[in-house]
Each structure stands twice: as C-alpha cells, then as structure tokens.
Amino acid sequence: MNPRLKSLQAYPFEKLRALLGSSRSEQAHIPLSIGEPRHPAPQFVAQTLAAELGRLSNYPSTKGIPELREAISEWACRRFQLAGLDAEHQVLPVNGTREALFAFAQAVIDPNSDALVCSPNPFYQIYEGAALLAGAQPYFLPCLADKGFIPDYDAVAPEIWQRCQLLYLCTPGNPSGAVTDIATLQKLIRLADQYDFVIVSDECYSELYFDEDAPPPGLLQACAEMGRNDYHRCVVFHSLSKRSNLPGLRSGFVAGDATVLASFLLYRTYHGCAMPVQHQLASVAAWQDEDHVKENRDRYREKFTAVLEELDGCLDVAQPDASFYLWAKTPIADTDFAQQFFEQQHVTVLPGSYLSREVDGLNPGRGYVRMALVAELDNCVDAARRIRRFVAGLPR
I need a surface site. Which of 19, 173, 260, 325 has the fewest CB within 10 A? Predict the structure, then answer.
C-alpha cells in the first residue's frame, strides 16, 4: 500500500460522527454541518439532462465538448471582466472541484523533501490530502479574526515561499466566507513570479454573495487588471454545485494558465475522469443562465437576515462577505458546544477545530463552529431559536 496514505487524517465528518453518537431527542433533526445545497435544482437543467440521455452510448473526451468550454469561457469573461479566455487552451471541464483540486496537486507537484503546499488554516481538507499524497508537506497559514480571516501573507518567511510549489486560496473562504481583495491577489501573483509557484484559487462559493453590485473578485480578474491575459502561474476552480444547486451533477471547471492546463490535461487523460456528455450539455444550460443564480442568492439572503436577527446578542457571529456559512465563536469549547447542542437540541454543527490544524500551539479554528445555512428557511430559523435556548441554558 502507498505509505503516504498513513499520513491522512480522518475527515471532519468522521470525527463529528464519533463525537456526537446518537441522540434521544424527539425534536426533528436539523443538519447545519455539511455544506450540501438543499435548494431545488433548476428544472431546465434537469430537462436538458433527461433529453440528452441518449448520449450514454458515447464515450466522453477528457477535454470536454467545445460547446461547454465556450459556455464556460463566455461566463467567466462576463463575470470577471476578462478580455478573453481561450476555450481551446485555457478551460478544462472537471467532475466538480473536489476531485480536480486533489488531482491538480498530483499533476503539478515535483515531489522532494523540501516541497511545500501552502494553504489557509482552517481549510478544505482536500488541500492537505492532495499535498501529502503528491509527496509534499502542507504549510498552514492561520486565518484569524484580527486579519479578517485572511492569511497574513506578509508574515510568511522568504524561505517558505522559496520552497512553495503550490498555493491554495479559497475565496470566498470556507469556513469564514471571507473574500480576498484584488490588491492581495495581485500581491500573491507577484510573489508567485518571484518564487516560481502556482496559485490555485478555489472559487466555488463566488456566486453566493449579498451585494448584487459588489460580487467577489477572482484570481483571473486580478491577472486581467495587471494586463496578464495569459494568466501565468494562475488557475481558478469553479463549480455548479453551490452556484446552481447541482452538487449531484459533479460539474465544474479549471481555467487559467494554458501551459499548466496542458500538463493537467495529460494527467487527466491517464486518470480517466471525463465528464459524461449528457452532464456536459446540462452544464452548458446552467452556465448560460443567471436568473436562477440570482434567485438562489435571494433565498440565502433571506435566510441570513432571519437567522442573524434571531442570534443577535446570543452568539458572537456576523454576516460573512459571501458563501452560505456562519462562522460563530462559541462560549464554550467548540467540540463541547457541538456535542451538547446536538444532544439537547438535535442540531448538528461542525467544530472549527476539525477544520484546522494546530501549528505552534495554535489551532485557529478552535473556539468556533461552522453552520451551513443550507436547509429551508423555516428550519434555519428553528435552528437559530434552538441555539438561543441552548446558549441561554449554559452555565454563566
């Protein structure tokens, strides 16, 4: 067996199941722990998928059909004000961002004893597993409240950047929802030039924001504003899972540096991960429509307003920049909060320490819980009321 598998830690939800056990509560269970969109999938996408089931008899190509790459390119250029995005060489469809974020590290890392993969902390655990199985070591950059939950990149020592081969960003962030601004993205691009590493920007929450006049910026947008239309050393990952409530379609894309993507395509050709043609055609329909995405944001906006009103004065929590998560500071240890809250109120939340790693005695997720407002409005409000009752019963 691959000895590197022994370095992988249990996934956060495995830890959560072990922590919670079973509940004897008679209340209906409300899950806020997993970021699985629960809003209805767009009907027109389902209809397209059904109409194209005859494509089950066709082998899909790893590179994807031209119609999908063109639809992605057109969407990205509109959304991020790009001068151009070459659908032939700068776009690659993938089966959701999770598998692609993992596979990308396997393709680009040159394994050696000094190789580092830098990522935020807390983080999406795929980043860590991808680094370890690619033969690199993770290097965690703490995301703290006093820095707006964005890593302090100025505090990273030059010798770390020298060893860095891959930098994972997540903007809007998981779990905090913090958005990295254009100036910071451009600072990182200049660092990538100086130290010769690749930047991966995981932007799967980019379409879940609150101000219709201020959508979160993206890495390719930062490149374009610098006149770098080759997007050198930069790639972005996007998905239909959150944007379009289509987690089961497993459809996303990678876009950016054509040279990097050519190597990634070679890897994927051997990896055997082509998206089914009928899924690609359904994805074309989704990327070409914005009305359902705006309606989706409206639903989340309504839930955040109602839940935060209910939690006012109860928990130290605020509306994030974007995403569908609340990152709440807990009045007791985060694991105790999650365990006791589940036992007493039958609501699951995810301890922040399960999303982080302790470095130099600091676990930046400790003392927080992540709550995904993915359930229906009434259930989210009910969960918030249960939080208020639970917190009110804690010892003072």
Answer: 19
